Amino acid sequence: MIILGIETSCDETGVALLEDGKIVVDKIYSQKVHSKFGGVVPEIASREHIQKLLPMTKEILKESHIAVGGIDAVAVTYGPGLLCSLLVGLNFAKGLSYALDIPFIGVNHLEAHIYSPFITTQEFIPPFLSLLASGGHTQIIKVNEFGDYEVLGSTLDDACGEAFDKVSKLIGLGYPGGPEIERWAKEGNPDAFDFPIPEPGGLDFSYSGLKTSVLYTYQKLIPEERIYKIADIAASFQKIAIESLIIKLKRAMNQTGIHCVSVSGGVSANSLLRKRLEELDANWVVPEQEFTMDNSVMVAFLGYKLYKLGKKAEFTLRADPRLSL
Ligand code: KG4
Ligand code: ZN
Questions:
Q1: Cβ–Cβ < 8 Å for 319, 79
Q2: Cα-to-chain-centroid distance, residue 117
Q3: pLDDT tens digits, residue range 77-136?
Q4: Domains of the chain: total
Q5: Helices 230-256 & 271-278, crossing angle to 10 degrees?
Q6: How many CB atoms within 10 Å of residue 310?
Q7: Same domain, yes or no, for 196 and 60?
Q8: CA 153 to CA 142: how far, in whole Å?
Q9: Pocket of ligand 1 (CB under 6 A)
Q10: Domain that holds residue 152
């Protein structure tokens, strides 16, 4: 069974072909154009998706030697994300589904992240916990069974990845901020600055206070320090941002008694987070690096699971920028 997965929820255009749940070929185009603006410009993102989606789909069909008529179903992200970006992928999928007379499957981007570690590793049998830390979300989710989710905690303000992006911009580094901060942090002293660990209580997260604390510290530095202390700021910020994820994860494990944890989303690429996970008394999984950030393989992978359960979408399915679990 061949499924085509499409991801256009933000600034990555992704297409993938999976055969019986296994990757045949996939392509991702990360829109570099946004870096000069320090964040994603929605209008530009959707135009880039329009330009890339059809040629990329043709390319993966050619590379895989699969004829367009050989596709059995098409899975696509319908939310959450940027409305105009979502619409590009969703309408493309609907068109293909109609023309080829094959089912199309609407995929929740958050749910796709949850299962992304299992693209290449043995899947946990529920219940398990999922820490989803990306540019738009920071949540701890209890997966009771496939399709049955309990959000135990969420961010009250910025998402963890968003905090990396904002701090990166503040100290003059590039976008996306996560990889930039991580790279600079390697050269810095994580104890150089004493930023506060956010503690909004329970299993919720908060990153705006930490971000503001970095801002005030940075503003007090003299111009020379703003240059030679970049690595120390990056390392000190990263330490606290990651620590707050670990603290909440430990708390969720204690509260639920569940020690199987799937960690996903862009922040799961972070090597300090992975190191701190190793120290936990948990059976944990993270995605392969290439599946941490937004990608189409996770969409096709979840789409295949839904397809097997007969969960096909109607053409009336609408893009939902605020879709939750
Ligand atoms: O999952 P993702 O690609 O997109 C959303 O669904 O939001 O996550 C992107 C986010 C960005 O905010 C980026 O800065 C962050 O993930 N990120 C990282 C790292 N790589 C990406 N954050 C911390 N450390 C990293 N190595
Ligand atoms: Zn994502």
A1: yes
A2: 12
A3: 999 999 999 999 999 999 999 999 999 999 999 999 999 999 999 999 999 999 999 999
A4: 2
A5: 40
A6: 7
A7: no
A8: 10
A9: 10, 134-136, 161-162, 164-165, 176-179, 182, 265-267, 269-270, 293-294
A10: 124-287
How far is ligand 1, taken at its centre, from the CA of residue 74, in Å? 26
3-class SS at 310?
Answer: coil
Query: pLDDT band at 39, cuts 50/70/90?
Result: confident
Residue 44: exposure state from Cβ atoms within 10 A (0-12, 13-18, ≥19): middle
CA dist 73 and 97 (Å) reads: 7
Six token digits for residue 35: 């870096």
Segment 172-231, tens digit of pLDDT: 998 899 999 999 999 999 999 999 999 998 999 999 999 999 999 999 999 999 999 999
For the domain that residue 63 is a member of, what is the CATH number? 3.30.420.40
Ligand 1 centre distance from Cα of residue 25 (Å): 23
Residue 75 shares a structural domain with residue 187? no
